[in-house]
Amino acid sequence: MEPVPETVTDPDDPRLEPYARIRERDLVGRGNRFIVEGEVTLRLLLGRRSRFRAESILLLPERWPSLAGAVAACPEPPPVFLAARAVMSTVAGFPIHRGVLAVGLRGAEPELSGLVPPPPSPALVLGLAGLTNHDNVGAALRNAAAFGADAVILDAESCDPLYRKSIRVSAGAALIQPFARLTADQDWLRLADSLGLQALALSPGAVETLDEGAAPARALLILGTEGPGLDATILARARPVRIPMAAGFDSLNVATAAGIALHSIARSQGRLDGGR
Amino acid sequence: MEPVPETVTDPDDPRLEPYARIRERDLVGRGNRFIVEGEVTLRLLLGRRSRFRAESILLLPERWPSLAGAVAACPEPPPVFLAARAVMSTVAGFPIHRGVLAVGLRGAEPELSGLVPPPPSPALVLGLAGLTNHDNVGAALRNAAAFGADAVILDAESCDPLYRKSIRVSAGAALIQPFARLTADQDWLRLADSLGLQALALSPGAVETLDEGAAPARALLILGTEGPGLDATILARARPVRIPMAAGFDSLNVATAAGIALHSIARSQGRLDGGR
């Protein structure tokens, strides 16, 4: 059935409540909800590969025609509200430019064991330790999706991939790339063992360089923050590897380092398109 | 001679004028000057590999002891002003947290031919076409420095690597990585010819994947913006290559793509540290 959008003119309309004071709520969290901005990201939320359900969509009226098809193709099309720019901006609490917002529902966190294929299949999992910057988490998710990682695992300190800015920086990858949290009773090395993965700890101080030929067929690639890096306890128990760099400026952004390492491992595992 | 810092208490002191209204001036440009923020970046500006001279330095008093050595080691130590946080914030026009600022001088733009070693030496040059986002330009410079590119060349549309935010995102690489502008009478392909470089155009639509073995010993790697990508005229005349990705989400940030491609080419050229 073709979804029929409803026009909303009152900024206090209770149906728009989840869109109210977006920035203030970024700080305190939204419980089971998250905010998606922009057309590319909304299409991923509505698409076949999305891990989440849209609760509702809020658009400028002129954005509806180009998005109607994507909404109709959704198995359970969410309600669509149309509002003038001034109404959207009043509700959101800042000027809305692109005019495409949606509220997504988190649902239950997936079981890690269900995300990673069992041995002897190749497997590639990205572990993020202590990444407290939303841009870096979003960018790392984007790179994980680009290189087909089976899952991203975040420790308790790392920030939320479904934070508004993380989703935006991820180019929507946060909505399709499977991710899960490291639970309190797990640690990185026990996790690797339980899933049959070899733990690689990316560290500029490692002796071994990340070499395509030597990448394990089942890898958990762990990265820490740029300054302190990974805990000595992780480095001691995992296989430390580094990305070779030019002399004198061995400094990479953590998400970029993740991208380079994932590209290298994914190629050697044969999981990229090769001769598409 | 040990430099002696001078304490400044008046926000209207004319010696602090280059630090006034930092954000407003970001918009209009600073002519021959640029602003450096933070200790890591200041050390690069003062260091041996810096391409620029510091005109002056402005610090919170407590930051001086740890930086005195780096200033003293400078061939021509610039004047150092110390100011209380309230004075610094008043001058800059926003709250100064880290308490480390400097003004750099651009000097003359380097000649491109002087940056790229002549044949038959290996050469690696990064070309940025139409990159209008300061974060992306800064991040691309950082990756160029990390993988030892000889030079970065920016077209007229691309933004300034010495913009305050570009320097910050580059982790200071903008201060040491040689870069220059594509002049109005040049185009990318003529430039590659004149320097004896093979032009590689990174494009998701390319048939050929970037393969380490096949990287040219003298490469100009050209990247465009994420949306429109490179001009068809460039793609038609250069050798288009792509980074292989997972099916279904072939989307990389442009600076990340630059990092992955530079890493791949630099490795095959043998310019990375290998067994340091």
TrEMBL record, chains A, B:
Molecular functions per Gene Ontology: RNA binding; RNA methyltransferase activity
A family per Pfam: SpoU_methylase
UniProt GO BP: methylation; RNA processing
Keyword flag Cytoplasm: no
Keyword flag Transferase: yes
Alphabetical keyword list: Methyltransferase, Transferase
Record domain tRNA/rRNA methyltransferase SpoU type: where: 124-263
The name this protein goes by in its record: tRNA G18 (Ribose-2'-O)-methylase SpoU
